[in-house]
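Chapter summary example.
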Amino acid sequence: MKKILITTLVFFTISCIDEKPAEYEEKLTVFSSITGGLSMGVGGDTCVVSLSNEITNDLDPKSLFISDAMVIISENGSEKIDTLFAVENRPGRYLTKKDVIFENGKTYELNVSWNNFSVTSETTIPDPIKISSPNDEYYICDGEQLKVDSIQTNNFDMNLLPVTSFEELIPFIDQNKISTAYYKDDGCYIGSFASFPLFLIDFEAKNSKTIQIYSQALERWTRGLEPDSDDNNSIGFWDYNKNGIKDSSYTNLIYDTSFVYLIWKGDYLRFENGEPFRINPGMWQVSLTPTPMSWLYFDYYGMHLITISATDDNYYNYYAGDPAANNQYLLPNSNINDGHGLFFSKASKSFLVNIAAYNR
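The structure predicted for these 360 residues follows.
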């Protein structure tokens, strides 16, 4: 009797499932972010507007960008309205004027309209983030307890953004306030997330759930002669560009062909002439403090601009369901009303640190 009942229930449940697929509805898709204390575009923020596309349609994604939409940002409780302008030669991209500065703790509303479509969203910018590098933390390295180095984190003015190279910063910074952290490539210093860190970053971020860490190598294009190899290979030097000749290459790249390194970071990307490179800047997401800044955060030697950003709830909620974007059929938790996408905000602070090779 029990078996018959179970079979009946299963049959009844299956027979009640509506197998008709959900009908696709075309909507506006908007991705936009703003940062407290900065104008849009300075800290990498932008607004991108496009039209959604049914997953089975084989269209060129570039054809979906919309460059003639009406895009407006306004502060709640204020009568001031800022209209974004379309960026030339960047389809679907919009920016505010440079004199529009967003404020921490304020709530902003985004309105986008195009043809018969109209979407809205809002975000409250988190309070200013505070960062430091603790000088009393210890890690275990090969069975020995060692103190982690501390660095200076108050050496960069956010008004200097955006930055593309270290040379352009030299007239505006005090290089005596920039610490040097040493990259070590063996033992407990590489091989996992738990490797001994170059330094630690402590942060205090109210009204935030997720911390973004951007690591931007400012001297990645430094050229030099390919260095001699100490691993007894047949040619006696590190052949970065794989041309069999000891010549010039981007020698600030941390070039490591060991199995452990490639497992964690993958093979190098290469230009057409064979010269290797890594994506720059890199971005990570963390939630615990203090955060160990280990070998995984750095792909180049030389000066780095590290930016720590505290994001709002919108960002956290959007990626909470499928953070790795493994399921293309699962829509994230969008905060774009009547549309798709994400409008979020963050509070950021940056500092400079020099990454140097450790000479044994």
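To summarize the output: The longest helix spans residues 2-15.
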